[in-house]
Every structure is written in C-alpha cells, then in structure tokens.
TrEMBL record:
InterPro entries: Phytase-like_dom. Residues 1-17 form the signal peptide. Keywords: Signal. This is Esterase-like activity of phytase family protein. It comes from Pseudomonas benzenivorans. Residues 38-185 form the Phytase-like domain. It comes from the Bacteria. It holds the Pfam family Phytase-like.
Length: 326
C-alpha cells in the first residue's frame, strides 16, 4: 500500500510539473524596518496582529505595524527556558551549535504559527523542538516524542546540516501540529496533542520526497533539490511554501499529497526584485481566505533596486479561492 501511495504521488507530481501554474497576483510589497537581526524566517496572523520571527534572535518575536507602505517591527521579548535534550545525532548538534555561535541565533527559529487562543509556536531547527509562547509571553517547550526525529530520519529526512525542520503549523484548536522538513529529503510530519504531551498517531511521517526539479524559466530552469521553506494550515488543508520552485501548494491532511499549486515566480523574479543567487529566499508563509503573506529572508543583502530590509509580500487568493479545483 505504501508503495502504491508513493507511485500515485509521483504521478501527481509529474502531472503538476507539466501543467502551467496560475500566477498569484501581488497586492502589496512591504519592507520591514526595525528587525535588528533581519533574517525574517516566519510569519503568523494571531488575532488582529501579524507577527514575525528572525532565525538570528532567540529572545523576541516582532509585532508588525502594517498601516503604511514600510512596516515597523516592534519587538516582544521573551525568555526561552533551556531547550530539551536534542534527539539529533552528536555531529549535527555540534555543527549547528558552532553555526549559532558564529552567526547568532543558537535556537535557529525557522517557522511560526498560532492557535485560536493566542499561543504562538516557534520551531527550532537547531534542536528539532517547538517552543510555545502564550499570549502573556510565557515560553514553554512542547513535550514532543523522540519518535518524530527517529521516524523522520528513518524516512531519509533530517540527515543534513541546515536541512532540518523549516516550518510549523497548528490547527486553530491547537490539537494537531505539523512540521516540515526542509530538503534532501523534504517531508511533512504530524502529531496529535494528548493532554500536556504530543503523540504520533499511526506514525509521524505523512510524506517524504527526494530528487530534484527544475526551477522557474526566469532562472534558466536549473534543477535543484525539492524543498519546503514554510508551512501553513487553512480550512483543513496544508499549504507548503516551495522556495526553489517559487510556488505555494495545497496538500491533503491525510497523506500530504499535493492537490494544486500556484506560482509567484512572475512577481518575485521581476528585474527590480532580483537578489544575488541564494539570497532573498522566500522563507515565511501565512494563508487566509483573502490571500497569502510571504516573507523573504535577505540575510542583509540588497536586491537589484537597493532595498536592504526584509520584505513581506501580500498575494491575493487565486481565482475561485484556495479551495478551487483546476
């Protein structure tokens, strides 16, 4: 059965690659001022506020003031308790620790989500762990089972430095949690809350994918490893941000299978918005009924028009909404 599912997923991916994607329409582009460490790596709409996180700062979230063309980031400090013992192997832990000492951000927060109660959730790539930050600013690490990392690694994920958990998503009730493994292999995992802890029900891994695929024509169609750089939950679907392909895809909750994708390459790769290769990566995603927020991590590098600040794009929902069929 697992082999049949993999074959069907491959057929769906092949058909997707051969079908021209609808381009999302850009509604607004907003440089973000006030993020001292830059490196915007996560976005989430919690209540009436849009929040951001940087993977170079371990002690703050940013509330974004969105009333003007240039947004202002206001820091909300917090104190994270010591991280739980990492289930990652020693070699990966040491390489990640050294990188954190050199560049800052030892926890390496790479994704942000929230629930209807106002709790914010940050995934630490360095520790393969998730921090919950309450509406009152109290921080606590979730009690995740070691099976998450064990099953992910058995499926070929979380084997490479700087290619670990890159996205997190929660349902509004805070009862289900999804994690996205970045690349080589990329994948999706799911956990269910049971009291104060979390469990894998019927296995953690939804999907694990390897291989390479062609990028947008604007970049010459160069083949690069498939990746996930952001994850969002909306209306009982998962949405993945796939940066090298410059697209957002809707996926089934049950098995992570792709249903439909939309491209943002036409807007992202306009001449004035170009960055040097491997910079200006789309790292953050939030999806709502009206559209999607996409955040760029520019690592302090300027793009072609000279803009140095992190960027957030607002795209309109596709024609017919996010649930539309082809």
């Amino acid at each position: 059965m697992r082999g049949l599912c993999a074959a069907l997923a491959l057929l769906a991916t092949t058909a997707l690659a051969e079908t021209p994607l609808e381009e999302l329409r850009l509604l607004g582009e907003h440089p973000v001022a006030g993020m001292a460490g830059g490196n915007l790596s996560g976005l989430a709409q919690c209540g009436d506020s849009l929040w951001a996180v940087s993977d170079r700062e371990d002690d703050r979230l940013y509330r974004l003031t969105t009333g003007a063309a240039v947004w202002q980031a206001e820091a909300e400090p917090f104190v994270a308790p010591p991280a739980p013992e990492s289930p990652l192997p020693w070699g990966l832990r040491m390489r990640t620790w050294v990188a954190g000492q050199v560049r800052g951000g030892g926890l390496d927060f790479e994704g942000l989500s929230c629930d209807a109660q106002g709790n914010r959730y940050l995934v630490s790539e360095a520790h393969a762990a998730v921090l919950r930050l309450s509406a009152m600013g109290e921080a606590q690490w979730l009690a995740l089972p070691e099976a998450v990392v064990r099953q992910a690694r058995a499926s070929g994920m979380l084997l490479r430095f700087n290619a670990l958990f890159e996205g997190v998503a929660l349902d509004p009730d805070g009862e289900r949690l999804w994690l996205a493994a970045e690349r080589q292999r990329r994948g999706l995992l799911v956990l269910h809350r049971q009291g104060a802890s979390w469990r894998c029900t019927g296995g953690c891994v939804l999907i694990s994918e390897g291989g390479r695929e062609a990028g947008p024509a604007q970049l010459g169609g160069e083949e690069r490893p498939r990746d996930f750089s952001g994850l969002a939950f909306h209306q009982e679907k998962l949405f993945t941000l796939e940066r090298q392909a410059h697209r957002i895809c809707r996926r089934q909750l049950s098995d992570g299978a792709v249903e439909r994708c939309w491209s943002f390459a036409a807007e992202a790769l306009a001449d004035a918005r170009r960055y040097a290769p491997d910079y200006g990566q789309a790292e953050a995603l939030w999806v709502d009924a009206d559209g999607a927020w996409v955040g760029l991590d520019n690592e302090g590098r300027a793009r072609a028009d000279g803009e140095l600040r992190p960027i957030v794009w607002r795209f309109a929902a596709p024609q017919g909404g996010w649930g539309a069929r082809r």
